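FORM 7B: Structural annotation worksheet

SECTION A. Query
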Amino acid sequence: MTAGEAFTSISGSGDDFAAIVALCEGLGDYCLIDGLAINAYVEPVYTMDADFVLAAGQLARARSALVAAGLTLEDFPHSLNALRPGSQLRIQFTRDPRYDAFPARSQRRDILGRSLRVASLPDLFQGKIWAWSDPARRLTKRKKDELDLLRIAEKFPEFLPQLPPPLREQMGK
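SECTION B. Predicted structure
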């Protein structure tokens, strides 16, 4: 069983991920960010989220396409979330302008058997620093961000100097 088949089986997402990737490809500049994207660079961990950045101004077009595809949408201050009834795959499109430059530096990587644009590792690391540093985020989310930062620094030691001091200390550096 491939990673994509296992993910589909567990999530009940059918072809949701492939459909979202196709939608993003049709909208122009985009990239995958956050945990699923980090899995392209380090040992994968289980996640049911697919987080994307779209080129500026494309979110309205994405919204129309998502509704037409039968997904339920939910608006939040920093994201537009989409979910197909019966699926556990949570799709998020960030509205945070700090991520706007990420698609320009993205690269094609294989995720769940699909070739798609994934944020560069330095951009993913920066995004995780922002998330980990946000006191408004739930503690459990910040702990996941912490784990992602440690996973990156463990495999790519060049990121160690950029880790916040408490995390560097955890790594004994």
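SECTION C. Observations
The radius of gyration is 16 Å. The chain has two domains: 1-119, 120-173.

SECTION D. Sign-off
Analyst initials: ____
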